[in-house]
Amino acid sequence: MTSPHPLPHTRTRTVKFPTAAVAARYVAKEIDKLVRARNAAGKPTVLGLATGSTPVGLYRELIRLHKDEGLDLSRVVTFNLDEYFPMTRESQHSYFRWMHETLFNHVNIAPENIHIPDGTLKPDEVDAACAEYERKIAALGGIDIQILGIGRTGHIAFNEPGSPQNSRTRLVTLDSITRRDAADGFFGEKNVPHHALTMGVASILEARRVFLMAFGEHKAGIVYKAARAGAHGSHLR
Ligand code: F6R
Questions:
Q1: How confident is the model at residue 5 (pLDDT cuts 50, 70, 90)?
Q2: Which of 117, 146, 180, 205 has its CA 20 to 30 A from that of 11?
């Protein structure tokens, strides 16, 4: 696991795990420790969350920790990385729905503490809503732990290669490879939205800790590139 777009103050470390389940348990334990410490101090924990296949095991483990080991998530505040645009909340393709079905409906995170970019906005409302998303993160003192996957193009959230290092939450156009990768879930590439709302590279890498998780042989090439970019302090290309 590593962060592919290093900032000058960022230290990166790549760790290999024998299985995805072991990696998920490791990251869940780190979240568990932080949340319990913050709860004891009466303070919130701010988590940045991803969708997709990568974090499923992590969310399953967080649900287990909540149900079996008393992990109280009532003070946790979440910010999701992205959402297709346009997208209704009820759609089977929405990240809003996916996050509720996969995690939020099974734990005690307060609904008012859940933030997901809003795929139902009118185009002329987008810029103000994106600025407000950033303002809310800043008002809480920033993200404590950010969970990331990585796409085959090397995207983090929907920041495709070439996204500026100082980018913020905004509307973006999706790469054709990214749309092709999503085609199965949408019953064909022609149904995949061309746009998405995404947190920016800077919004993500300002988090105090970033766990970029990647599983499977098909991710090996891009993980190698990302790790090399991290080691050389350069952008991912
Ligand atoms: C999802 C997201 C994406 C995914 C990436 C990997 O919120 O931001 O960047 O993390 O596309 O997807 P999976 O995990 O399905 O391989």
A1: very low
A2: 117
